[in-house]
């Protein structure tokens, strides 16, 4: 059985998690306690909120047997995720899925007992259709439901090199359309987590045949649902703490969100005054050819890690200003806090300083970017004929991500998270 995972760059609302500071990790130590979660997590943990229902899909095609038959982390990780769903969800329905679907009911013990090579040999393990699996997971997600899918992420296509490209592109379009149709109906966030575990069994290259290997191989978890429902089961930093964790990416439907943005006096260079009616500066004069001003943003309602917005490269503009510093509200002086414009006075999460030499004037078109995590491109491989020793790459990875990415870009109608205009006038 041949499979080919597809994923490409991430541009639609895809986000890579970065490492956290010691202080942030300390805040997350009690991750099941809503009071200890970051601001963006607290919004989902309302008192008395109804727990979501979970549909748990484990792909059990033949290409997955090597994970279950090895001594790696796979079985423990899958058991842990299933167990936490059993604890935190209103209900969980466990399903093995390949060419057919095997419903294991709601008993955790029955599911965990199936996590062996013999236990996975149900249904039709000779084939699977990843797009059909996504279709089922997407249909269940939303409206108080969360879908969890665990797979090696490989599309079931094979053939000669000249045939594979066309087949992968076709599958990518199907993935895109599946997501677009559901996203038009529901506000769904998709988490894609890459993990690694020992694989001892047969690997099936795209150009046919089989190879016996015993080495680490990547596998993937997709979690699809409303971000608030997902966070009730998987709090911030949950996946990063799993054995074998490698990376994570998030696709977010923005649905017209425009986080508040305001000015303040912080890291000031040159002279200027705030406009009274819009987001802008007047009477701007550089000091020794340098101008610097700061903006405060409220990103609390975007379901992304705070650390994402700590990255300077997130902030891009057309006037040549450079983002030189990001800090948080608690790091501001009393005077800086007092100068915050009212729209962000009590809610700002990130303060960003922008600097420029020479002429500072004009209309700044500021984009908050969707960064493309480097690991996505590094995971892609277009030739899996020599899989021995390859522990990090998945054939056709870019095509799967492209399908998801294109769906979120189309529904969001933008490559960026959000955009702002800041007028910077000489008079």
Explained architecture:
The longest helix is centred in the middle third of the chain and has 23 residues, at about 160-185. This protein has helices at about 20-25, 40, 65-70, 75-90, 110, 115-120, 130-140, 160-185, 225-235, 335-340, 375-380, 395-410; strands at about 5, 15, 55-60, 90-95, 100-105, 145-150, 155, 190-205, 210-225, 245-250, 260-270, 270-275, 280-285, 290-295, 315, 320-325, 350-355, 360-370, 380, 395, 415-425. It is built from 12 helices and 21 strands. The strands form 5 sheets. The chain has an 8-stranded mixed beta sheet, sandwiched between helices. The protein has a 5-stranded mixed beta sheet with strand order 12-13-21-18-15, with no helix packed on it. The chain is elongated and about 75 Å long. About 45% of the residues are buried. It has about 425 residues and is of the alpha+beta class. α7 runs parallel beside α8 (about 160-185) and α8 runs parallel beside α12.
């Amino acid at each position: 059985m041949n499979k080919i995972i597809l994923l490409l760059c991430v541009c639609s609302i895809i986000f890579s998690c970065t490492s956290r500071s010691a202080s942030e990790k300390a805040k997350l130590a009690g991750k099941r306690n809503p009071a200890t979660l970051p601001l963006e997590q607290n919004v989902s943990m309302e008192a008395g909120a109804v727990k979501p229902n979970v549909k748990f899909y484990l792909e059990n095609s033949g290409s997955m047997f090597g994970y279950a038959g090895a001594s790696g982390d796979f079985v423990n990780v899958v058991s842990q995720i299933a167990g936490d769903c059993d604890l935190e969800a209103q209900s969980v329905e466990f399903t093995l899925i390949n060419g057919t679907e095997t419903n294991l009911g709601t008993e955790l013990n029955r599911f965990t007992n199936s996590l062996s090579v013999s236990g996975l040999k149900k249904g039709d393990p000779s084939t699977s259709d990843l797009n059909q699996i996504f279709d089922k997971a997407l249909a269940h997600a939303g409206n108080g439901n969360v879908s969890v899918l665990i797979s090696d992420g490989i599309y079931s296509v094979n053939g000669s090199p000249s045939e594979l490209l066309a087949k992968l592109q076709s599958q990518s379009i199907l993935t895109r359309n599946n997501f677009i149709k559901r996203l038009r109906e529901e506000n769904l966030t998709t988490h894609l987590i890459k993990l690694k575990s020992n694989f001892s069994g047969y690997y099936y290259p795209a150009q046919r045949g089989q190879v016996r290997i015993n080495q680490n191989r990547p596998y993937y978890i997709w979690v699809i649902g409303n971000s608030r429902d997902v966070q009730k089961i998987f709090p911030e930093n949950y996946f990063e703490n799993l054995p074998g964790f490698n990376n994570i990416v998030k696709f977010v439907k923005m649905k017209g969100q425009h986080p508040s943005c305001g000015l303040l006096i912080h890291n000031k260079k040159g002279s200027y005054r705030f406009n009274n009616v819009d987001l802008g500066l007047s009477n701007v004069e550089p000091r020794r050819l340098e101008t610097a001003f700061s903006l405060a943003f409220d990103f609390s309602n975007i379901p992304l890690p705070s650390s994402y917005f700590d990255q300077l490269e997130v902030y891009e503009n057309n006037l040549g200003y450079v983002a030189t510093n990001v800090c948080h509200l608690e790091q501001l002086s009393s005077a800086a806090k007092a100068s915050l414009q009212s729209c962000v006075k009590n809610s700002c999460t990130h303060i960003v300083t922008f600097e420029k030499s020479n002429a500072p004037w004009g209309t700044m078109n500021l984009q908050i970017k969707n960064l493309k995590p480097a690991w996505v491109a590094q995971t892609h491989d277009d030739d899996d004929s020599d899989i021995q020793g390859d522990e990090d790459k998945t054939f056709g990875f870019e095509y799967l991500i492209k399908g998801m990415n294109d769906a979120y870009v189309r529904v969001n109608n933008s490559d960026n998270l959000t955009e702002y205009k800041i007028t910077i006038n000489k008079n």
